[in-house]
Amino acid sequence: MDYAVIAESYEKIEATTKRLEMTDYLVKLLKKTPKDVIAHVVYLTQGKLYPDFVGIEMGVAEKLAIKALIRASGGSGSVIQKELEKSGDIGETAEKQLAKRKQSTFFSKTLTVKRVYETLDKLAKTSGSGAVDTKMALLSGLLTDASPKEAKWLIRTVTGNLRLGIADMTVLDALSIAYGGGKEAREKIERAYNISSDLGRVASVVAEKGLEGIEKFQVMFGEPIRPMLAERLGVPEEILEKFGGRCIAEYKYDGERVQAHKSGDKVTLFSRRLENISDQYPDAVELIRTQVNAKEAILEAECVAMDLETGDMRPFQELMHRRRKYGVEAAIEQYPISLFSFDALFVDGKDLTQDSFPQRRKTLEKIIKPNDRLKPATQKLVKNPKELEDFFEEAIEDGCEGVMCKSTSKDSVYQAGNRGWLWIKYKRDYKSEMTDTVDLVVVGAFHGRGKRVGTYGALLLATYNPESDTFETVTKCGTGFTDKDLATLHEMLQKHVVPRKNSRVQSTLETDVWFEPFVVLEILGAEVTLSPIHMAAMDAIRKGSGMAIRFPRFTGKYRTDKSPQDATTSKEIVEMYNGQLKKIGESPT
Ligand code: ATP
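Above: the input record for the complex with adenosine-5'-triphosphate. Below: its predicted structure, written as tokens.
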């Protein structure tokens, strides 16, 4: 298959803003794709070479891309630089440059998808001394043989500027239509994705073996299962009502979610956003290796910072110190952890995700040899609001954030990748007069004045809207930051500065600096109000109004464990707004 076919499809996808049309173009592309490269095509259309959990990124800096472009086009550096400043788009710059190329160097060999993929793969894996030159040679090799249009998409891909907006869900829709026989297949294909987190593997199985293959799709060691998520409620009566009067309440530990894969002596740990974090937690790896009595197992646990002397749990923030590449040994000593396991998803060849929660818990208890560093989560069957409230108080007393209430019904399966009512979180924040904390994405900033000169004075924060795959501003926050936070944030955000507002950011405000959506912060606000300037959930409550958070304050929690797509959604803000109205006795509009 020629890369030109892909480039042509990208052109069409870029030109439309309609999701249905986008899906349609993607379906056509997938149908044209030979089965042996379909996984590659799926990764490439999302600007990747592998599923995220593999952790291999192309990471070509703009500077290097420009050098490769100079070499392949024979153009001058200053002209290219000027062009880039004018358009702000390195892809377009590449296209224009190559169009000017002399006939003699006109593309000699056609680019196949296989060659593009393999070259980019080599490029991504090149490291060490001389890596820059090797990468440049690999990239300019491709560009020399590329048509101007192909060059545009190649350059955008390698520099991380593809931005076609093809979300995972769009790929699943397209696969269902192209190879599953229609939209009805979506649920089965999505399940395969939810238990593997690998769209490429899902694509090649459905393309080669159809729905039958997808039905046989298995959980695999080393492929993280997408996490099951909880809904939230603030009143014990309402929680119990949802569960028909009884549920299991479990301590809601305030740490980092970890999915542990064990196969013999080999253990891999994945974070909530499915990154491999084994190197950060060799102590947790060892606990799983020695205290889990199964040849193969996939477990979920909360990893909590501990004071080993008192046995007390420490605040979540202490885990920040464990996010490091060097000095891990010292950090293990200084910031020890314990694991509280709350689910078992796969044990000795058996996929447990379709078992009920009580069954899974039984298996979990069977395979864990508890010690003071690894235990099953503390839990209790509660049958009335008083029991739930008492258990909640106990959890808070013990240093937890609240409780997780879980269904005990026969259908209480593990809903991989879904937020549903089988789990309901009940947290302390709900008890205050303030709204719950929210996790917001930093999309822009305003320069600091006075004491804050040289750092940011306030940040522009946004919610995520999964329907449009955009980030909608919801508040401007300048409170709650210590001097250290200001310095940390400035450094953290530097890497994400972009010259102009990102196309996925919805804002009517102008800032001094714009960022690509990446950093997520936990914010506590006083109230959700309607807003004429913020874009979150625009028109949802009243035409022409968005939603805003009043009196926002940074809680001190950097949600480095969340990707921007995991931030609080605009819809959740609407729910909070309606919840507030209920509290003060007004009916929501
Ligand atoms: P979410 O993960 O629902 O998007 P979040 O990351 O903000 O939200 P919370 O709202 O605090 O997290 O609640 C969910 C998290 O609680 C889980 O992802 C898990 O890390 C943690 N947790 C702690 N104890 C438990 C438990 N017993 N069962 C399930 N999850 C637990």
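Notes for the reader.
Residues 229-230, 250-253, 257, 272, 302, 342, 377, 404, 425, 439, 566 surround adenosine-5'-triphosphate (CB under 6 Å).
The domain at 3-158 is CATH 1.10.3260.10 (DNA ligase i, domain 1).
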